[in-house]
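Quick entry between incubations.
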Amino acid sequence: MKELTVTVRRFDPDVDKEPRYVTYMVKANEGARVLNVLHAIHDSIDPTLSYRYSCASGQCGSCAVRVNGEPVLACMEEAKDRITIEPLNLDVKKDLVTDLVPRLEQIASLIPKKETVLPKKADIDAIKPLKDCIECLCCVSVCPAVDVTKFLGPTAMRQEMRLALDPRDSGDRVSDAVRDGLFTCTTCQACWKVCPKEIETPAKAIEKLRAYANKRGFTLPRHKEVAAMVQETGRSIPRTSESFLEKVGDVIEPEGPVKATVGLFIGCVYNLRQQQSALDAMEVLKRNGIRVIIPKEQVCCGSPLIRTGQLAYVDELKRRNIETYQSRGIDTVLTMCAGCGTTLKHDYETPFKVIDINELLTQYGIEPPARLPIKATYHDPCHLMRGQGIHDQPRELIRKVVDLVEMPSICCGSGGGVRAGNPDEAAALGKRRGEEIKKTGAEIVITSCPFCEFHIAGHTDKPVKNIATVLLEGYREKDRKAGKR
Amino acid sequence: MLADEIVDSHVLVIGSGGAGVRAAIEASQYGKTVLISKTIVGKGGCTTMAEGGYNAVLREEDSCGIHYEDTLRGGAYLNDPELVNILTREAPLRMGDLVKWGAVFDFTDADEVAQRPFGGQRFPRTCYAGDRTGHEMMMTLVDRLAATDVVTVQEYTVIDLLKDGDAVIGAIALDEKGRLVVMKADSTVLATGGGTRVYDISTNSSSGTGDGYAMGYRAGAELIDMEMVQFHPTGAIIPYDARGRLVTEAVRGEGGVLKNAQGERFMKTYDPARMELSTRDVVARAIATEILKGRGTANGGVYLDVTHLPREQIETRLPVMLEQFLKFGVDIRMTPMEVAPTAHHIMGGLRITPACRTTLPGLFACGEVSGGVHGANRLGGNALAETQVFGKRAGEAAGKAAPRQKTVDERQVDAWQGRLDSFKKGSTNPAQVRQNLQLAMWQGAGIFRNAGALEETLKTIKQFQTVSLKAASSRNLAECCIVQNMCLTASLICRSALIRTESRGAHVRTDVAQTHDAEHSPFGHTFISQTREGIETRGMKA
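Done. Structure below.
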């Protein structure tokens, strides 16, 4: 037996005005789960603690709660000392019990066709990965789109996709999905990162449904414009001034010895809108021994098309991009844009390694910059943190130059074609980011994605800076102090 | 005092597992149907946790006759033959319903429903959806239920059956805040599932607390074979809090082998012909014996080993097992599991006719709460089939039953209100009684039984039944009622176990010397009700 100290959020709407946090000392067995801790509180400390469970073996999805802010199944998550247990971010009925039923009832049901149709093995194999869902609603509880729109949520889309694949079903799943918010998903990946069954809903359901929707003519007009532009210019945004690729040479040689050589994949937004951030990054790379080859014939990675289900031209983009680097014998391609990085890593099969700039700089190490007397907060780009698992590296870099105050990692609203297609939703999510930024008391906001950088700048009065820009400012300060340059 | 709210329906189905939902779907064709559930429909009960599969004869090389014989032999010839006949004939039809309604069972390359071998069966007739078969069935049934006009009342706890004279006319329930609700119905279907939560080590979900047996008994129904408790051979043993969690028979069906601490495949001493795929009673006793004889692991189990199977087979056919063990730090692709028997299923239950009528007018029963289908030992894969076959039958019979004059007996409701009020003034935490009951049952009424220990356990239970339980708030009233039901169900198990003075199937009496085998047993069902108890003898049906 061991003793754990755990804090539980209690709330009885009949009595309490606001939730209260109560700390318990609980005796637990070695290997106890969070559910066992709740049992221990209920059975021997306070029988009025309300929580829901049924199978206690990860199969029914009744017991999902948040532990230290992260949704988990209480029955499967090991209980640790000093944890905080809270209900999922859904309507709370009492303590840890949330109101699941109304949301469960929104999930579509199979409506059999009049004549009996039997599935084939191929149908079964296609559907099966979408059938592991235990409807615990962890995904719904973290979905930013659910928070600000009428979107029914990730698992409802998973179910629409499962039904769309089933020859027995008579419903029109694609129209239903569009009606229920298919285009509100920012593809932030929060849903599948919390899914106890690891169902990859954005790629396996939402983007697939969007591709079906595209064939049915449901693609949003703004998304169609983007696709037309990519097809015409190779770029997803218009050229309004001299592009990054026009500004720079074919190779940027580092100042000191060469630690590594990479081919740069710049991406549309850094190339055509946030050029200065990209130029700052080149300065940082130069100073840290990275030789950068910059092929000029590179085109859009295809992310804006893949995320919105417009796949017709994607293979051509992939072919051109892969050929660009392969023909030069480049074995490592550097991305700076979180969206391009996740696309090259997951939607491409590349003959070269793809590395994000934060990974590269922490891998090879950087010259220490001067510390700036600034309090900063960091916004995790979804396609960096969840898409590529890059969480610690940017923080490591930031802490070298400024003080970092954390804020919750939530989508800013600019991904998945939402900024173009659903501007009101993007603005609502941006506004929430602005509020979180304000709460931190930070003087600047740092991020590492041109979409986030641009979008958040419209929703906060603090300067929004690229991580490379902040590092460069640290180097300039260092040089100034040393009386150089 | 009159109830706050009265719900009136033609059919009231109590319980939302596989049998209850199937019954409600069927009954809804005949009139207003209410499905009341202690949990959220689709999440509660044991069907959704059922892993291995559903037995149905689907191939020409197989036959219902063989399934019938396997089931009777597996049940130590205590099964009600007519119920077995129905089970084996209708299981394929109900499987057809599920497939038509959208169930995603695994298919073969020939586009047919795949089947795998299970214990005690001469043909691989267990249909499956990986090792989440029951979950797949529940998802399908809930889908279908949504297409009917069944009214679902969720997270309400039924605490007693409502009586009008001899007839059952509905139920008394508590809502989540502990308010009394009276539900009237022409027909009431009990589909409350099992009750092995009365044991310390059990596979059951939170709702496997035996409420249906207790409520049926209190209402005056007769129950049979309540001593027949199946101990599943393979339950998890570590960590302590995960003890009893089901390790599906599909693990052995896919080729998993059992070894003792010395690395011997000990099943060769107990059933050399069928080895690991012997019936559950035999395998559970074999494991328990190995452990008792000191050949168990340091953690008090035996090894269940699949490390010789291809990784891909484990990943696709046993994904839930793989995931669950990984969560506890064991990769079953590389390390053997450690397992020991766990209380799993109650074969006994309310006596039913082929139309699922109980001995009380107006009361029907289906699924695990009913008795007779599985005899003295259930074959793996027959329970999921039972839920569908008898769920449909109960729903149909209940639906077709004529409307009934229903007069609520205010004395019954008042008496309940009185009991609830007394819980508010009680003194003992019901959790304490529950834990002590579970330990007493595991020690005194487990795999190996004798009269002395059973009587001692019964005495302990009687003492628990006199304890003044305390409800810390109105929301805790249901818990008090449930603990009392657990005590009553446990007492029915012990009393029936004392009545059966033979070893048969899952019931082993170490204090009885016996010369007959199961097929030649002079005994039939045990029976127990408020008015009589005893055991049928051969050719003498009670």
